[in-house]
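Bug: token stream looks shifted between consecutive jobs. Job 1:
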Amino acid sequence: MTPIDCTDCYLAIEIGDGVKRALVRHFSRLIGERLAASDFAARDDATRDKLDRDAWRLATRVINDVEAELSGALDETLLLPDPQKSAQEILAMVVGAAAAAVEQKYFQDDLFGFEALVARLRHSGLGAAQPPA
């Protein structure tokens, strides 16, 4: 039998739904806190829907950035004593860095970021400002 060259392979990380949900919760909480700090309440369903849409959009951006970063970067992980643990550590590091970068961009982006969300909420009359304490 002729030997078959099996060197054309790689290790990949498939990002699970739990990571995606955790990112959405992270961004929902972050945006909600920033709205509250801006004296803007997210009490009604329509406001929460807009907030959640931004959270999902940011989570998706992080996942896309992470997948691009990890593409082909894990081949040497197979040689480590515990490849699963090493892959999880690599994923945690890359997700953390990508989430921080996406957060920074979101809060600085006047066209599609936090200020645009606040403007949409004000324009639609949703999430009325909280009464003074």
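Job 2, same session, no restart:
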Amino acid sequence: MADNPSIVKGNGCAACHVLFRVKEAMQVSEQDAADLLSEVLLDNQPLNDEFISIVEQIHMKARMMGVTFAIKSRDAKDRYLDANFKNTLSELVSDASVYGTEIAMRKLVLSHIALNIAQNLGIDYHAATEELYYYMRKNDMQTHDEMMQSIRSLLTKRGVEKP
């Protein structure tokens, strides 16, 4: 894949390409393949570095997206990711304390749905978010009820909040 990024067709995902190859070769579920891939990458730092390099090459450099991030040194990328990781966690904790756990969970669920839409359609996250919000506005009561039911179910499954 590093030598021939065209193996990943069109707007396909390099990581998914590897994941589905593992799934097919090992005859396991997608989740099991993802777990296996994560274990292998966690235990083999050089392979993990090569894997992310390939993902960056295909998704950022070859497609001319996120190039300013892609051309940074690994240390600069890690500092940027660390800052965003910590800021996002802090923001979620703050939202939960100020607005309540349900609002923080709503934010997480909506982000996850938008991310899935972006991945499945091969569009950017912003466009996926706008499409999701359009759909939700169009089906306001239904989507609100489903969202709140799911959030409450998630929170009560782990004993976070009492029903």
